[in-house]
Amino acid sequence: MSTIFTKIINREINASIVFEDDEVLAFNDVNPQAPVHVLIIPKREIATLNDLTEEDATLVGRLHLVAAKIARDKGIAEDGYRVVMNCNEQGGQSVYHIHLHLMGGRQMSWPAG
Predict the structure, then answer these.
(1) From the candidates 37, 64, 97, 99, which is the catalytic residue?
(2) Which residues are catalytic (predicted)?
């Protein structure tokens, strides 16, 4: 079964896309928790962090490089930002397609949120 993220990748659902290449798609979160809140996803479906393999190391690194690029593009890199990846229900994961949350534009508190 396709997730909402797969439907966004396939353009079945509209999203405010801020970055795209052959492996990664990034778009503004529809329920932002900060002035800048971008979701960064691989185009290949991987359900959770627990499903990653050694072969995914480069892809996961690419997600983080894209997060840093978007932070620079959005003007939040120098002040700081948060990058979060949740895993499974108790970790706060609601869409089972790995994704980074890039959040910034305000002072972040702990815990995330």
Answers:
(1) 99
(2) 99 (tele-amp-histidine intermediate)
Fold of 4-104: HIT family, subunit A (3.30.428)
Q: Does residue 97 carry a catalytic annotation?
A: no
Tokens at residue 106, please? Answer: 């305000």
From the list 60, 42, 19, 31, the residue with the least C-alpha distance to 96 is 42
Domain ranges, ordered by start, for the chain: 4-104
> Cα–Cα distance between 40 and 35 in angstroms, integer?
16
- 113 residues of the chain, pLDDT tens digit each: 689 999 999 999 999 999 999 999 999 999 999 999 999 999 999 999 999 999 999 999 999 999 999 999 999 999 999 999 999 999 999 999 999 999 999 998 876 55
Q: What is this structure's pTM?
A: 0.93
